[in-house]
Amino acid sequence: xxxxxxxxxxxxxxxxxxxxxxxxxxxxxxxxxxxxxxxxxxxxxxxxxxxxxxxxxxxxxxxxxxxxxxxxxxxxxxxxxxxxxxxxxxxxxxxxxxxxxxxxxxxxxxxxxxxxxxxxxxxxxxxxxxxxxxxxxxxxxxxxxxxxxxxxxxxxxxxxxxxxxxxxxxxxxxxxxxxxxxxxxxxxxxxxxxxxxxxxxxxxxxxxxxxxxxxxxxxxxxxxxxxxxxxxxxxxxxxxxxxxxxxxxxxxxxxxxxxxxxxxxxxxxxxxxxxxxxxxxxxxxxxxxxxxxxxxxxxxxxxxxxxxxxxxxxxxxxxxxxxxxxxxxxxxxxxxxxxxxxxxxxxxxxxxxxxxxxxxxxxxxxxxxxxxxxxxxxxxxxxxxxxxxxxxxxxxxxxxxxx
Amino acid sequence: xxxxxxxxxxxxxxxxxxxxxxxxxxxxxxxxxxxxxxxxxxxxxxxxxxxxxxxxxxxxxxxxxxxxxxxxxxxxxxxxxxxxxxxxxxxxxxxxxxxxxxxxxxxxxxxxxxxxxxxxxxxxxxxxxxxxxxxxxxxxxxxxxxxxxxxxxxxxxxxxxxxxxxxxxxxxxxxxxxxxxxxxxxxxxxxxxxxxxxxxxxxxxxxxxxxxxxxxxxxxxxxxxxxxxxxxxxxxxxxxxxxxxxxxxxxxxxxxxxxxxxxxxxxxxxxxxxxxxxxxxxxxxxxxxxxxxxxxxxxxxxxxxxxxxxxxxxxxxxxxxxxxxxxxxxxxxxxxxxxxxxxxxxxxxxxxxxxxxxxxxxxxxxxxxxxxxxxxxxxxxxxxxxxxxxxxxxxxxxxxxxx
Lengths: 403, 403
Description:
- Chain A is an alpha/beta fold.
- Chain A is 35% helix and 27% strand.
- In chain A, the strands form 4 sheets. Chain A has an 8-stranded mixed β-sheet, sandwiched between helices.
- The first copy, chain A, is globular.
């Protein structure tokens, strides 16, 4: 058996930090466990490369941008492999392409199609620590692709799935918390969280783990661990796994916050579906993620539709709709924020929505859009009220340590 | 027809410089000529990467060092391709591996085994400017290799050979000069020089073009042009080609200088060849370049052998010989410098050696070792006398514009 460990950019920002990480890796290897390490670009390298690209006047060329970005991880992995060798640990670096990551050709947000892991497995069989560049692959023509922001998590989980190993994601936070601890001091660390909860949290703005990677972990039953880089005590981080009896009873596992959230609305469209389908064709073409989609049939036979997305996507969508002659006005509310309660227990605890609405009402906080899934309840509030609403709900559902 | 242009690190050191280079490339393309561009790493990037590697404690791992170094050129080519795209010129970047450069696995000084140019040719056929990372390839197992310092010149010439095109090397010097103009102000630019002369000049210390690349150009009849980056006037640079009638009459084409030159000598070794053969086995294993090899049979039946090499190689060789129990003392002279007269006309002008020796003698400059080839005459002098000797010989053979 073995483990895939992933280290984010802040964990490998300097040679000193790479050395500290290497010492942890060496310990694992010396304990007899096989290990594959996925590394991100050092510190702010990716941003620096993007800045360089912007100066070229041709940064909209996604193929070249991917080739450029891929150098970031390639630098880290060769340095990390050298440090490991310097510690006397046999190690070899593999770029995404060398590791067999074949993706589609959707540059800058490519999807993994296959992992041809022969080279990887050969190196593992030879007892080496294999250091793999996160976030990248090659398409069928050999062009370098990247998986998009957070793609290194996906690389790590995909490798763990391929190898049948556990996956440990090391980052600069200690664990997943019930709510963002920067907003709600006293937020409780979660020792366990289910894949579904984590996906809701990530998708709804918790921002610690890329949703795609959690989805992949769920699909292939990869046990994920998220912890702070260099922290050896595994009781401090969070396991992301299927629900089991060891989970504590908590109807609401966590609250996820999104500072900015634009809501777009259409009124007076015909109920025959033509409006929605032509709108969502545009949305899909622009690859915009929308949520909080809600539609109602009004008394006059027309529909009212609203949905939320990122403010910058809202701007892009309105422009594109206008250019394409989309016949309905997209009204924009841009000063909203989103708050989401997440928990696998919610489905069996019908009182939760009621309790949440009551608390907001009693405290004079208006809420606008509501959307629910089996394990989540999301609402929009005025952005200025987000902080207070979060604190009230966190207290109500016992997500913070009592002050 | 088309042209391969190579731009060195100083020509692409900043985005501004890359833009200036791109404008030149765009002009060529817009004139209707196909063009493949080979680029080096930006400015001092390669040195910066080596510095990073040194801090790892594992920089002796040549495979990882190559993977690290290769990021330098990959960065340049993607940025240059973006700049070209920004100018409206269709362009695509290819790493060494993507361009089909297959090498042996001799990391950090790999030799090109094959160029599988299908992808390259496809992009050319589609009318694109192809920007290729110099200095790199992959071995048969897909490991990233580098061709060693100056390897980008070799990349460019190899591509020109493969495509049957001319090759233009752009650098920060205007042309090849009869003698280093920093040492002899008034040195004349050479409009033409033969492959053989250029190889002698390069190997003997002129340092403008990598010898391997000239050798390759000669072998595949690639017409080479060397000029200053951004200079569009082709009468200012130097063509490196077979001798033809357009060459001016010059018995000595140029003088090449080498500041530091160590000479090692052995005396009293048996004449049966055993000593030389075991010594050169060690030299070959260490991959040390030696020249000025001279051997004489002495009256007592023993031989006297001497040869020159770089001072650092001399130290390494003496250490290795001592460790391996080589039974003869290698005497070291380390304060010498080398001066070489080069010219295809030398073979038919027997008076040249005589003239050179006379000038040095008349001016009280002692010389020690002498070695000749068909087109060159090399001698060692005390390093302190190099500058004066060079000036005297340059004047004697009319290599400088009269002051």
